[in-house]
């Protein structure tokens, strides 16, 4: 098996760094524990708004609820972006996962991969709706609002099988789904450009998903709406019902029959079957 072509840091910087592009700094490292952890540490050191870090591999990649995110060398896009969104209230920072999910939809659409979003932070792709990407937004300790947004996108089939995610959700990759390109530099370029465009609209709207047009887009791409689901809540309990909608804050509205409608602010969703 041939070695994967490394990310072209020079090309990425040439297209994406200011004054030509939207980002203040962009680095590519051969290996790190976690790009999110690295940028959280960089916040205290004064790293600039819209700082980007990509890694060829992560040895301690983390997803939601501290789950491992398998990040084998050369098999995916492992990227984090540090944002200091002035004018956006702290309460709205979590909705950046919605924005990032839509940027991933822009990319999958551009390269010919059928995909959808699973609330709150997964991309499902292919006829079997396997997991192709995940998103993790983490507030960072700072004198001003700061958040680190991490994205892991499976590009090539990993050499070692990847364990299933929450609810037994299997993994897939762009290569397995017939993407028109699996060049990771090209895909990273598309992803970072799409995210910058959507994040700029979100920021200009003060983090308001409706005003920025992101909420309507998310509803259109969200495979969770209309599904009968089980939600694994942060406190270890579960909630079940029909995923009725996504509200203006990006939260899941769950219809529980006689139990009424419940707002889910955080949790892992398992799709059970479509609502009838």
From TrEMBL:
Superkingdom per UniProt: Bacteria
Alphabetical list of CDD domains matching this protein: BPL
Any single Gene Ontology cellular-component annotation: cytoplasm
Name of this chain's protein: biotin--[biotin carboxyl-carrier protein] ligase
All residue ranges annotated as the BPL/LPL catalytic domain in the record: 10-203
PROSITE patterns: BPL_LPL_CATALYTIC (PS51733)
Keywords: ATP-binding, Biotin, Ligase, Nucleotide-binding
Alphabetical list of InterPro entries matching this protein: aa-tRNA-synth_II/BPL/LPL, Biotin_CoA_COase_ligase, BPL_C, BPL_LPL_catalytic, Transcriptional_repressor_C
Documented EC number(s): 6.3.4.15
Pfam families per record: BPL_C, BPL_LplA_LipB
GO molecular function, a single term: biotin--[biotin carboxyl-carrier protein] ligase activity
């Amino acid at each position: 098996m041939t070695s994967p072509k490394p990310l072209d840091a020079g090309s990425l910087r040439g297209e994406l760094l200011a004054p030509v592009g939207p980002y203040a700094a962009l680095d590519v490292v051969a290996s790190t524990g976690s790009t999110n952890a690295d940028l959280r540490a960089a916040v205290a050191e004064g790293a600039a708004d819209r700082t980007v870090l990509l890694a060829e591999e992560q040895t301690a990649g983390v997803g939601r609820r501290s789950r491992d995110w398998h990040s084998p060398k050369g098999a995916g896009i492992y990227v984090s972006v540090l944002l200091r969104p002035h004018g956006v209230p702290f309460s709205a920072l979590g909705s950046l996962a919605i924005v990032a999910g839509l940027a991933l939809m822009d990319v999958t659409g551009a390269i010919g991969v059928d995909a959808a979003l699973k609330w709150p932070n997964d991309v499902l792709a292919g006829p079997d709706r396997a997991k192709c990407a995940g998103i993790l937004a983490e507030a960072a300790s700072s004198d001003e609002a700061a958040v680190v947004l991490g994205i892991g996108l499976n590009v090539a089939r990993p050499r070692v099988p990847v364990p299933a995610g929450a609810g037994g959700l299997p993994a897939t990759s762009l290569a397995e789904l017939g993407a028109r390109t699996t060049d990771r530099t090209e895909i990273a370029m598309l992803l970072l450009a799409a995210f910058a465009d959507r994040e700029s609209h979100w920021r200009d709207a003060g983090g308001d998903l409706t005003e920025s047009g992101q909420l309507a887009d998310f509803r259109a791409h969200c495979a969770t709406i209309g599904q009968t689901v089980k939600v694994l809540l942060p406190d270890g309990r579960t909630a079940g019902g029909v995923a009725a909608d996504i509200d203006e804050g990006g939260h899941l509205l769950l219809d529980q029959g006689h139990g009424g409608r419940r707002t889910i602010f955080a949790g892992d969703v398992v799709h059970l079957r479509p609502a009838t």
